[in-house]
């Protein structure tokens, strides 16, 4: 009796072993799950599943990424083209880490045959023909935009790419000082336009629609970007009213123009605000929610230029000696080591230099070319940079010296806020004079060695210069840190991610207060070059 339990156990064990070897191998997932006790982890099979799911996710992301065309709004200047190439490499590296299907990444300045490519709309037909069938989105960004590719895919994935979408970070005017469309004059906050720095996107159906319209109704020769009140006013004429003409000029801030063209007087979509399109700095506490961020630092490439490396020319006339020149002397003159005032009257108390050019109500082309001749023939050849400003320009020479550390003075550089004229029909870009025009010495040498000159003494100097440099094949270099208007004339969110170099006009403001609020260097900024918190009151 005592051996029966043991015997039975041996018989049971033998039967189990026999049954085990008779059965085929059981390798199905169902079996594996069935033998794992509840609450236990299957260490062998779970990683295989995770790998499979991850592979599927990467495959999906890869397909979606292939359907996005990235457009970097780059420039041909060596400093800017390198920054754009760095961004392109970063986008492609992120894509390579996700799968084999790499997206198309294009640089605006490499697109041949489009002088006005930076205005975007002239490229729509090319985009439609090339990418209209196999892509879902065209995503635009600036060279300093930083993109989290996976987060961008997740963001765009919320929108049906088969429908017409216009996506971006929304800007709007708080007052009717910058005219975008008369339909919004009474309530300008209704009209939203994208902040390019945050990136913005058009769905392919909308691109195709715009291309079709542009084919049937080509852009006119007086096609205007971002209608502003500045017109052709300068320091030598009375301030233009806020509702003045634009004279067919095209501003670099073509955010609103694109929004207007897309809107099509109510026939097209308004801008859809996307909170994941950000202009927060990459180190901001909000960065986790952002698909894009923006570099909020003033560019600095080594040591700032010496004060003696920048020659400053101020255009003025006798009637403004008593009110505008004192503002310059109270504010930014102390930042300049080399500065001269050019007028139609020699006033030793300032002092001003009479170039022998009579004052004109508009244009001042004759005076500007005389300044260029004087810089080339009378200033030290060791001074590599010239900046020409109006007497109502407010500028930070301190910041300009830092900015110019990034540009090669051995290249022909013409720098400032870019406008354009007639770009819809092959016109030209130029640097608007009110925000300040910066020239490398070699650019002045090439210009004056050519036969390009003013067609009249009162021709608009900035536009003639743009036409001349365009004919010479010297590109205009744009910096959004130069401003043709007052701080109040720009959306607050647009200025919030800038460290500005200049503003223009004294009209209806306290210019000294504007300078010390927006442009005066402070100890912290001087120390580390980073953006600081200014006490910017409503001006």
UniProtKB/TrEMBL annotation:
Domain Fringe-like glycosyltransferase positions: 130-212, 304-514
Assigned protein family: Belongs to the glycosyltransferase 31 family.
Record-given protein name: Beta-1,3-glucosyltransferase
Organism expressing this protein natively: Grus japonensis (Japanese crane)
Bilayer topology annotation: Single-pass membrane protein; Single-pass type II membrane protein
Major place of residence: membrane
Domain of life assignment: Eukaryota
GO MF entry, a single one: glycosyltransferase activity
Signal peptide extent: 1-30
Presence of keyword Glycosyltransferase: yes
UniProt keyword list: Glycosyltransferase, Membrane, Signal, Signal-anchor, Transferase, Transmembrane, Transmembrane helix
Subcellular location: Endomembrane system; Membrane
GO cellular component: endomembrane system; membrane
KW rRNA processing (keyword) present: no
Pfam families, per database record: Fringe
């Amino acid at each position: 009796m005592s051996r029966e339990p043991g015997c039975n156990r041996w018989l049971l064990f033998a039967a189990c072993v026999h049954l085990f070897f008779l059965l085929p191998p059981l390798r199905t997932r169902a079996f594996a799950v069935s033998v794992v006790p509840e609450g236990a982890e299957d260490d062998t099979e779970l990683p295989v599943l995770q790998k499979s799911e991850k592979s599927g996710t990467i495959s999906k992301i890869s397909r979606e990424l292939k359907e996005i065309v990235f457009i970097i709004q780059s420039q041909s200047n060596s400093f800017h083209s390198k920054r754009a190439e760095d961004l392109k490499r970063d986008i492609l590296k992120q894509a390579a880490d996700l799968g084999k299907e790499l997206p198309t990444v294009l640089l605006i300045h490499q697109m041949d045959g489009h002088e006005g490519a930076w205005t975007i709309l002239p490229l729509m037909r090319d985009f439609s023909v090339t990418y209209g069938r196999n892509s879902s989105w065209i995503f635009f960004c600036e060279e300093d935009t930083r993109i989290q590719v996976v987060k961008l895919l997740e963001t765009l994935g919320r929108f049906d790419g088969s429908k017409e979408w216009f996506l971006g970070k929304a800007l709007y005017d708080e007052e009717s000082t910058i005219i975008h469309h008369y339909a919004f004059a009474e309530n300008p906050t209704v009209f939203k336009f994208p902040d390019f720095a945050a990136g913005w996107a058009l769905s392919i159906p909308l691109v195709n629609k715009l291309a079709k319209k542009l084919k049937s109704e080509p852009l006119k020769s007086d096609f205007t970007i971002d209608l502003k009140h500045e017109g052709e006013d300068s320091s030598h004429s009375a301030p233009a009213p806020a509702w003045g003409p634009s004279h067919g000029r095209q501003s670099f801030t073509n955010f609103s123009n694109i929004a207007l063209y897309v809107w099509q007087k109510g026939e097209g979509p308004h801008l859809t605000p996307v909170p994941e399109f950000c202009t927060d700095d990459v180190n901001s506490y909000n960065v986790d929610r952002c698909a894009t961020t923006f570099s909020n630092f003033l560019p600095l490439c080594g040591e700032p230029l010496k004060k003696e490396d920048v020659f400053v020319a101020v255009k003025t006339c006798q009637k403004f000696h008593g009110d505008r020149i004192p503002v310059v002397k109270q504010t930014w003159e102390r930042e300049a080591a080399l500065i001269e005032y050019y007028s139609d009257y020699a006033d030793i108390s300032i002092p001003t230099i009479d170039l022998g050019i009579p004052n004109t109500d508009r244009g001042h082309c004759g005076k500007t070319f005389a300044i260029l001749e004087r810089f080339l023939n009378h200033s030290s050849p060791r001074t590599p940079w010239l900046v020409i400003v109006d007497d109502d320009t407010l500028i930070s020479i301190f910041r300009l010296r830092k900015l110019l550390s990034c540009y090669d003075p051995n290249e022909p550089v013409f720098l400032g806020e870019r406008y354009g004229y007639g770009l819809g029909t092959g016109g030209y870009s130029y640097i608007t004079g009110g925000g300040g025009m910066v020239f490398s010495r070699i650019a002045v040498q090439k210009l004056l060695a050519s036969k390009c000159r003013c067609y009249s003494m009162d021709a608009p100097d900035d536009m003639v210069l743009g036409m001349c440099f365009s004919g010479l094949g010297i590109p205009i270099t744009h910096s959004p840190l130069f401003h043709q208007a007052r701080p109040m004339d720009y959306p607050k969110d647009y200025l919030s991610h800038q460290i500005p170099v200049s503003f223009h006009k004294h009209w209806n403001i306290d210019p000294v207060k504007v300078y010390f609020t927006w442009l005066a260097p402070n100890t912290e900024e001087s120390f580390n070059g980073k953006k600081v918190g200014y006490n910017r009151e409503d001006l």
